[in-house]
Amino acid sequence: MSELARRLNQCKKPVGDQGKLVVEDMNESHYKLTGWGLDKVNILEDSTVLDIGCGGGRTVNRLVSLANKGKVCGIDYSSDCVRWASDYNKELIEEGRVFIKEASVEKLPFEDNKFDFVTAVETIYFWPHIEENIKEVKRVLKKGGKFIIINEIYDDVKFKERNEEFIKNSDMKIYSKDELKDFLKAAGYLNIQMEVKEQNNWICYVGEK
What we know:
Blueprint: H1 3-12, H2 16-29, H3 31-38, E1 48-52, H4 58-66, E2 71-76, H5 79-88, H6 90-94, E3 98-102, E4 115-121, H7 130-140, E5 141-151, H8 160-168, H9 177-186, E6 190-197, E7 202-208
Parallel strand pairs: 1-2, 1-4, 2-3, 4-5
Antiparallel strand pairs: 5-7, 6-7
């Protein structure tokens, strides 16, 4: 297995010592991307927010700074990530402002109509059944709630060589701009917005329930 393949596999489900290094790197490298995406929505101070694929927990921590009178939940299907994200947010968990759970987007362990916002930062590529998973996210959103997808990669000719190398070395799926928008439409999301930062190959979608 190549070094790139090993790293991409850890991006999908970080585990062990190597996964810890990858998660710590993602906490840093995704910070600007995440901020760019979160600027597209207005998270109110009393919002209830879910971060799917919370990794090392920095995005959860950032969401608490926005929803400072609300609650933020992070989930990840890596038990190691749950532990690392919990360590990163230890004080906030003790205060009852943050909850970290081991769970998959395949079946979210929450009742219907629970969250004002759901975020997915750099995780969509690895969702196993993307159309059904997007519907599952909609289930746990409140009416008028928003789903924010933030990716640093989309299918674009300017990044074709790099993206094809990623695909060759992993089972990640890199979507075109229209593909994810069409999935959101098919799932019944409203007022879908899409923005790109072409020079970085970044893309953000916001869909409303």
